[in-house]
UniProtKB/TrEMBL annotation, chain A:
Domain DUF1989: 52-219
Any Pfam family: DUF1989
Protein name from the UniProt record: Urea carboxylase-associated family protein
InterPro entries reported for this sequence: DUF1989, UAAP1
Domain of life: Bacteria
Signal peptide residue numbers: none
Source organism per UniProt: Aeromicrobium ginsengisoli
From TrEMBL, chain B:
Domain spans labelled DUF1989: 40-206
Pfam families referenced in this protein's UniProt entry, alphabetically: DUF1989
Natural source organism: Aeromicrobium ginsengisoli
Protein name: DUF1989 domain-containing protein
Taxonomic superkingdom: Bacteria
Length: 279, 239
């Protein structure tokens, strides 16, 4: 006996474990995804392939098919989704933040913005955005940063660093720390001032979301930790809701496909690569 | 690593397992005397690692009692050689780890030897907990609770190791009986505050420990407590 719990024998321990099976938590995956209590409006639940609430200071990861639509939602206004995407077929092709800002001639992520790899292709496209408070400059927090700011950075401690969590997420897909490039983050905005100062914007408030479309099979890594420039001395981050459903990759009928000549060529490169692979 | 760390910030990260205030703690001392070359406290739920030199003895103190110290061992100079449960069990012809057990690698070679042990038997069958297996054992609501595999992966990454390097492990101070009908599971422990195990390195060994943060079974009495790690050296046993 441990307190009121009988775990003295194998059978008693088994009964104790099984009695917990129907419990719920504020942060958990919903399986099957169609059973999500928070299915997005207008989405047929049977099309859902991923439904989860990511804990504050938690992370998640998934391999998703080409065409998958991925919604990240900032439930409370305090989430911050640090995102990395990789070509699931050849994961050394991965998010390149510099190209993602340079090729579209635009530093600030928003609806229509492509997330580009270093191979001249589009990994994913931001297709909807009700927040407009994002950042592609600051990356995620490192261990060193969080130790200085909060006193601890351990992934299972009170103030995990984004880098530590993305490392764990990547390991689960055979990726090592050297596979992790700079990441982008959603829901806590940063703007560059005239003198170059990185100015913290904070969030657009509770209930905003961002939709990404996977333009090829992707490994998606997400860490939900405070933005490194978050001015609060406490470690404040809210839950992050994730839903994904079957859909179509971007095509010529989409406005963002040909929004600029550079982007159109990036989509052409992507299709060229996938068609040769039989996808 | 220190249990003395004062949390000065407020955090919205959900609280993991925390040890009950007023828990009886016995920090004890090295089981095998000698010059102390390392003496560290591992906070509840935290990982730890060190290279233990050939001939040196690592004492692990179960400070709060019945606190599983999940443990992996590697040849410090070639980490592809690592602890092997089946080699260890087959060689000794017994399913439990006790004083005298030689902890062997997958090449059959001794990594470490148990030279002192203050509980009836130690476990090397039960493996480590993880976020992922928690969802199987207890339900999906536990997916964001902490697990030893996270500790192992985080600590292993500091040594250039990844998930490919994790194998079945050893659990100091955990109790996993195999009953007559084959029933097997984690049940109430056999240890107590201050109980110790001492393991001598038979080569230079990288030891990685997860101070188990499990919240759903008695591997830590539902009350995760600190560990103390002491490495002692006797010049006449140094190889
Ligand atoms: Zn554990």
């Amino acid at each position: 006996m441990v307190g009121a719990r009988d775990t003295a024998s194998v059978l008693a321990a088994r009964a104790d474990a099984r009695a917990q099976g129907s419990n719920v938590s504020d942060w958990m995956p919903y399986l099957p995804a169609a059973s999500s209590p928070f299915a997005p409006e207008g989405v047929d639940p049977s099309a859902l392939v991923w439904a989860e609430t990511v804990a504050p200071g938690g992370y998640t990861h998934k391999v998703v098919a080409r065409g998958t639509r991925l919604r990240l939602e900032d439930v409370t206004g305090d989430a911050c989704a640090h995102v990395l995407v990789f070509n699931a077929l050849e994961p050394w092709e991965r998010l390149n933040v510099a190209d993602t800002q340079k090729i579209p001639w635009q530093a600030y992520l928003g609806a229509g913005h492509p997330l580009l790899s270093g191979e001249g292709r589009v990994l994913a496209t931001v297709v909807a955005d009700t927040s407009a408070h994002h950042d592609a400059f600051c990356g995620t927090s490192s261990d060193e940063w969080n130790v200085v700011k909060y006193g601890d950075a351990a992934p299972q401690g009170p103030s995990p660093s984004g880098r530590a969590l993305l490392t764990l997420a990547g390991v689960k897909h055979g990726l090592t720390p050297r596979d992790l490039p700079p990441s982008v983050s959603f829901f806590q905005g940063v703007r560059v001032e005239d003198d170059g100062a990185l100015a913290w914007q904070g969030s657009a408030g509770p209930g905003t979301y961002v939709d990404l479309v996977a333009e090829m099979p992707l490994i998606v890594l997400v860490a939900n930790v405070p933005h490194p420039l978050d001015p609060r001395t406490d470690y404040v981050v809210g839950p992050l809701r994730v839903h994904a459903w079957r859909g179509d990759p971007s095509g010529p009928a989409d406005e963002h496909y040909s929004a600029s000549p550079e982007r159109e060529r990036a989509y052409l490169n992507t299709t060229d690569y996938l068609e040769a692979r039989g996808l | 690593m220190s249990t003395d760390t004062v949390e000065t910030i407020r955090t919205t990260v959900p609280v993991g397992a925390q040890y009950a205030p007023g828990s009886l703690l016995d920090w004890s001392e090295a089981l095998v005397p000698g010059d102390i070359v390392l003496d560290e406290r591992v906070a509840p739920n935290a990982p730890w690692s060190a290279v233990v030199r050939a001939g040196d003895v690592l004492t692990i103190v179960d400070v709060g009692g019945n606190q599983s110290a999940d443990c992996l061992m590697f040849n410090a100079h070639d980490t592809s050689e690592r602890y092997s449960v089946p080699d260890t069990l087959t060689w000794q012809g017994n399913a439990y780890v006790r004083e005298g057990t030689v902890l062997r690698s997958g090449l059959g070679r001794p990594l470490m030897t148990v030279v002192g042990n203050e509980i009836d038997r130690q476990d090397t069958i039960g493996g480590a907990c993880s976020k992922e297996s928690n969802t199987l054992r207890y339900g999906h609501h536990t997916a964001y609770q902490h697990g030893c595999r996270e500790n192992f992966l985080a600590e292993a990454s500091r040594h250039g190791l990844t998930s490919r390097d994790l194998v079945s492990n050893l659990n100091w101070f955990m109790n996993v009986p195999v009953e007559a009908d084959g029933a097997l599971g984690i049940v109430d422990g056999l240890s107590a505050p201050g109980r110790r195990v001492a393991i001598r390195a038979d080569m230079d060994v990288l030891v990685i420990v997860s101070n188990c943060p499990q919240m759903n079974n008695p591997c830590n009495e539902f009350n995760p407590t600190p560990l103390r790690m002491i490495v002692t050296r006797n010049e006449d046993t140094v190889r």
